[in-house]
Amino acid sequence: MNYINRRQFIQYSSLAISTSILTSCATPNNSNSTAKNNKNLDKVTYGTNWYAQGEHGGFYQAIATGIYEDYGLEVTIRMGNAQVNGTQLLVGGGIDFFMGSSLEAIRSVEIGIPTITVAAIFQKDPQVLIAHPGVGNDSLEQLKGKPILVSSLAEKGYWQFLKTKFGYTDDQRRPYNSSVVPFLVDKNVIQQGYLTSEPFTIQQKGGFEPVVMLLADAGYKPYATTIETTKEMVEKNPDLVQRFVHASIKGWYSYLENPEPANQLIKKDNPEMKDDLLAYSLEKMKKYGIIISGDASTKGIGAMTDERWKLFFDSVVEAGLIEPDTNYKEAFTLQFVNQGVEAYQ
């Protein structure tokens, strides 16, 4: 599943919709996974970017194992979908925290939306391109000039990176309809995907292992599955932010060790999610260092650095995605992370 292409940004001026309306927009298919009710707990709502799945496991784990409660929090996870604009909900007060990415955060700064990233759970964005084996499409370099199925919104993200680095051109793009069927019936087809999802579906339906090319390993390096909140929240209630971040990180360490408690909640919220896909997603996140790699190896899950943000900012400016005078430093704060692995044990 492609998370980065499921949401579009809106101008801040259009966010003056009432909180009650914003909240109701997210009601269908939303999660009811909530920490045990206790009047002494601070109530917090975290909005995800899609339906419940393994890629959200650490947050569900912190609910299932009581980690959030240990930090004085009653947390509700509100699932996202294609019709829900999480940034709009966040600024409108419908949710307290939201699952975003580096590119979204910088775009928010560019258009004046007062949100800020306080932690980055995924050190690598799981965005991939997928090809058939044995046809000469085994690397991103080899895909230059060949038709690729990508979503229309890819143009606002990783597609520009591929054009800049590998010389791809817009005439290579073909419409992607979120189905692997066109890929399965034509060995020459290349398509977008998510490391933890589409390759599994292809293996199950096609009976073969596709070639999977992780864009993060080729230089496309946004943080993903981030924790975003409003700048007002950071300024007025930093203790709540710190507790939510710290507990969420501990939830992720717990999920990597024993995912079963969270998986039960995930399947409850999203009955279409099955055990084999949950296991596959977790295995791939571990194998490719999606969560623990780079700075997170020493600074702890959720780690971020100024250098990494600057590197990504420079790359999206070069690709023409962001105006060069955007103050990208307003997109994040290191106040709540980088406490070291031992702090979360």
Automatic annotation (TrEMBL):
InterPro entries for this protein: NMT1/THI5 (IPR027939), SsuA/THI5 (IPR015168), TAT_signal (IPR006311)
SsuA/THI5-like domain location: 55-262
GO biological-process terms attached to the record: thiamine biosynthetic process
Pfam families: NMT1
UniProt protein name: ABC transporter substrate-binding protein
Organism: Okeania hirsuta
Record lineage: Bacteria, Bacillati, Cyanobacteriota, Cyanophyceae, Oscillatoriophycideae
